[in-house]
Amino acid sequence: MNIITGNVWKFGDNIDTDLIIAARYLNTSDPHKLALHVFEDADAEFVSKFKPGDIIVAGENFGCGSSREHAPIALKAAGVSAVVAKSFARIFYRNAFNMGLAIFELKECDEIGEGDLIKIDLQSAKIEDLTKKISFSFTPIPPFMQELISCGGLINFAKSQMMGEGA
């Protein structure tokens, strides 16, 4: 997964984990059930409008609030292919990689519009807004973190390492 392409859904600053997946749904850890309620309190019809492969673009401090890993699980299960934000809350940043959700920090998020088609190239560390024909560079994700995304998260990575050691 070196290239991610999708249409953009825009969110502002300080999107907390309760807005991503409301606390009332935390009685389950079933990813498919959580996916049905992503951003429900921001837009009750978000899940019906969102298409698998779409990309979230947001402002500062995405994923702030409680440290629940349900938020990246729900986003990934809903089909979010990546989240691009000006910055991430520290615990969300770690949880996202642990769950295999691709996230990227980009200061120029305001230049990307709702509905724009963007392409994220992990190898070149570039995000292209194909709609506006502009591109931006981001700080490359370290190889280990890329491997976590490729494996689908930390648990799958650990399983693959154990299988490799036993061979």
Q: What are the defining features of this structure?
A:
single chain; 32% helix; alpha/beta; 7 helices; 167 residues
Write a structural description.
The chain is α/β, with parallel strands linked by helices and 167 residues long. Helices cover 32% and strands 19% of the residues. The chain is built from seven helices and seven strands. A seven-stranded mixed β-sheet has the order 4-3-2-1-5-6-7, with helices on one face. Helix 6 packs across helix 7. It starts with a strand and ends with a helix. The mean pLDDT is 93.
Total DSSP helices: 7
Query: Please, what is the average pLDDT?
Result: 93
Helix/strand/pairing category: alpha/beta
- Pattern of helices and strands: EHHHEHEHEEEEHH
Number of strands: 7
The whole-angstrom Rg is 15 Å
How far the N terminus sits from the C terminus, by CA atoms, comes to 25 Å
Layout of helices and strands:
Layout: E1 3-10, H1 17-20, H2 31-35, H3 46-49, E2 55-58, H4 70-78, E3 82-85, H5 90-99, E4 103-105, E5 117-121, E6 126-129, E7 134-137, H6 143-151, H7 154-166
Helix pairs in contact: 4-5, 6-7
How do you describe this structure in short?
The protein is α/β, with parallel strands linked by helices. Helix content is about 30%, strand content about 20%. The chain starts with a strand and ends with a helix.
